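Fold sample X.
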Amino acid sequence: MFESLSDRISQSLRNLVGRGQFSDQNMQDTLKDVKKALLDADVALPVIKMFTTKIRDEVRGQEIVRHFSPGQALIKIVNEALVELLGATQAPLDLKQAPPIVVLMAGLQGSGKTTSVAKLAKWLVERENKKVLVTSCDVYRPAARTQLKTLADEVGVVYHDVDSTDPLEIALASHKKAKAELFDVLIVDTAGRLHIDRQMMAEIQQLHTRLTPHETLFVVDGMTGQDAANTAKAFHEALPLTGIVVTKLDGDTRGGAVLSIRQITGKPIKFIGMGEKTDALEPFYPDRIASRILGMGDVLTLVEELERKVDKKEAEKLAKKISKGKGFDLEDFRKQLLQMNSMGGMANILEKLPGMSGVKEALSEARADKTFAQMLAIINSMTKKERLQPDLIKGSRKRRIAAGSGTDVQDINRLLKQFDQMQRMMKRVGKKGGMRDMMRQMQHLQQGMPAGMLPPGGLMKK
């Protein structure tokens, strides 16, 4: 996400590393580079002007704390300006109203609106423990209602259909059902168009008037840059939006939509879509996104993913096994690979770790996914005895495993080498004080990171 923008801005800030002080010239050069990076990311021009002016004003009003370079100081200023640009604080859904809470979803065709309905329903069930009903008022797009029903079945929520071609009739009947059957939330999917038109606006305005939704969310395609922000503004002028959902941010999105939308519409981004799977929806935290853009990772989101997706029983079982001095075998390694895969693979994890942007660039997402699949195929082609006793895997066994997994013997050797490194690390962790030593090494690594990673404590003072 935002890889090009992140690399460009990080490089601009790194150019100040080692400078003794700010000067008009080096600030002018740096801000020129930042402005060009934002223009290339398709950020709206008024937003760029406001952003760079704020940074320049902040630099002039700050005194550099001794021992910190202008590059480090500027990172702090840019980070704070980015957080403010993105909305300062997280804007959660208003779920404190009397049920059924009505969420009306709007957006153009192709923005990922229907998929976002299913993702949001799943998020409400799993994260907020809500009973959710979904319905579709899209009577124009072929199979739109069938698509939502299929997705609803997949995420385990109730889909309500009405034998009608009148969007208002469908919406009101669904609201009646939600109220009668004590659903906590009703999510209403509306029709999308290829462009904004009068009929579309009149229809959704009527739905809004009659349903009086608690939340009206506009879904935009993050790949469309500042056009997404302008479309959201047009919808907001016709409809009192309460928030934005930005989709398709799992690729190298340029960032124009996310960076422009708050300033242009005045409405907060509430969720971001990070993939096609129904669990690929994240609440939007301005500080965390700013941290990702500056290449400083997003450890909090990574910890939350670990809490949600890692099998705690399996983790405890492995921890006990290692603490008792028992070996880490290939079956354990396989389980660890599956856990990492459930979190989006190595590329997704590296993106959220501080200082790992360069590593992630070297390890492309496609290559990482292929490597994961290959490693799992190799281990799955082994017998149970071979997984528990890797030392048994010699010449003839390697050839058999390679044939069974569609790989070469060199691939088997590479995996066994990686496993050996993991096994050694696990032995160190299992020893007394091993985890403490490992954490100390991580701290040394953090202290040795270049500009782009904020050191502990404040950098500036007024």
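Fold sample Y, listed below.
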Amino acid sequence: MREMAGTARAGTTLKVFVSAGETSGDRQAAALLHAVRRLRPELEIQAIGGAHLAAAGADIWLDSRQAAVMGAGAALTRAPTLIPKILKIRKRLSQERPDVAILVDWGGVNVRLARWLRQMVVPTLYYLPPRSWDRRARRDVAFLVDAIATQFPWSKHILSGETARVEWVGHPLVDQVQPKMSKPEAASSFGIDLKRPVVALLPGSRKAEIRHCLPLLRDAAALINNQLPGAQFLLPASEEARRSKLKLLRAFRSKKIDLIILDGMNYDALQCAGAAAAVSGTVTLELALLGIPMVVFYRGSLGAWVQYQIARRTTMQIPFFSLPNLIADRPIVTELVQYQASAKRISEEVVSLLSDAERREKVTVDLASACRQLGPPGAVRRTAEMVMDLAAYGVREPFLQLARTGTRG
């Protein structure tokens, strides 16, 4: 029975399939594989993923950077080219059946993959399950996989009680968001003057985010610079943004903005920021862990805005869209969405955070309180141990029975 469930004996090569879509998911998937390899060096990895998984030694079946989009409209435009590729991966999975599958976030694709993997009776772990930040999330994913490693304590309670083993492992960022330099050392290394205001600008990593949000941040930075002369700006540039680094510098410096472009989320440099303006996403949690007060905003296409408004009022029914506020379940940071997110409003919030010491201190304390809900260090190690459990024991009997009968999902 266990051999049917896809177990792999110790000492043999463990075949792992991984699927991660967004840049943050790709990075977390790679970190998990490094932890798994410390427990089981003999790995053969196939993946849907990006640069981080490729660097971790995965054979990339599909570059997820081609597939990761925001909003139903964008997804529909990609569907004609994406669906045949996903169906081809389904065929490859049945032919080159893995011992263990790991799905990371990216519910739009990974939930479908979970259904196929269940039919193939492949032991599957869902890491950082979709919408796990939502205290009203549905439980469907707990019927589709054998194990779930979630980063939020309330998500374990929501997902438990079905066929999947559910563990609250904590959030991997607790381990990862750790500057290696002291603040003075970082300031010296990156040419930052700590006696002047320092603002982090985070426009997101997707092409659409950069197109809609980067010009907004440039204009906001110009307004901040007018009110706080000598301000310095840190911009963690995604791979997409770094391709046009010179263009970026010209665009900001044409407005006499002192800009330092960072290679991604450089925590050493970012700890020097006194405030930040950030697009909604994982970066807001990284800033929270660094203790940086922020204003969180989002601006996209008209179609994405309409879709968000409909979802927020019907299926999602959430009061906030930024992770710090969602985790705290109360407003900590200011949220500005679509037409509220003007350069003027963003600049006003940043200037207030830098100028009002009492407000800045309150936001910092509240962010620290929210971050305590992310659990202790060691999330990646705990999840790697769950992967090893699946490799050793395969799918659990109730899940195996469901896979045979085809019921639930």
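Sample Y note: Residues 14-172+378-405 form a domain with the Rossmann fold fold (CATH 3.40.50.2000).
Also: The chain has a mean pLDDT of 89.
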